[in-house]
Amino acid sequence: MVNYRYLGNSGLKITEITYGNWLTHGSQVENDVATACVRAALDAGITSFDTADVYANTKAEQVLGDALKGERRESLEIFTKVYWTTGPGGPNDSGLSRKHIMESINGSLTRLGTDYVDLYQAHRYDTETPLEETMQAFADIVRQGKALYIGVSEWTAPQLRAGHALAKELGFQLISSQPQYSMLWRVIEDEVVPASRELGVSQIVWSPVAQGVLTGKYLPGQPAPAGSRATDAKGGATMISRFMHDDVLTRVQGLRPVADELGLTMAQLAVAWVLQNDNVAAALVGASRPEQVAENVKASGVTIPAELLARIDEVLGSVVERDPAKTAEGAPKKRPS
């Protein structure tokens, strides 16, 4: 079964392996398979589920809501997000304005079939809306009981500090950050993680397996396997492209002896690795087949000895991205339209 960790400086516990349905539900896999994956997650002891209104343009929330029907709501932790464009893409169909946030939470709750979400997250920072307006809207949603806690995704350390200060002023808790983090992508370590520790914020990390690269299934000098994310024209191939270079893939193959020594698969090693960071509350894992969920949860509770962590660093060497500026570089400079 899966271990629990506290989320930030709060009393909320979440499963350290959290099920996420980005790039799968409502798009890559059929609804019956998506439901089977959610059932497998529940069977494995996962009670925390992460989605967003933008995933498959709201369809992912609907699929998750349908899959969780009949479960005791109080036994689940459901997270969703707001920022990216939903609906037809009108001028107020994206961003973190009060209008978009208030309309989006109502839509999300309807699709998820619940009166509240445990965690409502700003999916990116909105450069076009005053932060005070955004945080006031979040404060009102918490007071209305539509969200219990507030989090953010891919915010820089200064943005986190500013948002946290306003949240405190307004009387609610900003407790989480959802960044990309893996053995290959460590850009949060130098700035975001220290700021988060200082503020009582913890990480719910996405792509701990680097979009599948750290499973070891992509081999240097060989075409990507048919049906893999690297061949997915709906968005997967674009996301994974930064890692699809022979120097990266060759070094990843060098991790096999470490995984073998720990009795783990390569994917389990990757998930267990992010959980060694004490500021990480959970690793988000997705699945296109139910058996993948059962495999991923085996990373829960694993301790990687210091000498093996050092060996991982040595094997990966210079292909690891550590530049903290990448968080700001990858952020939208204006609202999508």
From TrEMBL:
Ranges where the NADP-dependent oxidoreductase domain occurs: 16-315
Statement: the UniProt record of this protein carries the keyword Oxidoreductase: yes
Pfam family, any one: Aldo_ket_red
Leader peptide range in chain numbering: none
Entry's family note: Belongs to the shaker potassium channel beta subunit family.
InterPro entries: AKR (IPR020471), K_chnl_volt-dep_bsu_KCNAB-rel (IPR005399), NAD(P)_OxRdtase_dom_sf (IPR036812), NADP_OxRdtase_dom (IPR023210)
Highest taxon, organism lineage: Bacteria
SUPFAM superfamilies: NAD(P)-linked oxidoreductase
Alphabetically ordered keywords of this record: NADP, Oxidoreductase
GO molecular function: oxidoreductase activity
Name used for this protein in its record: Aldo/keto reductase
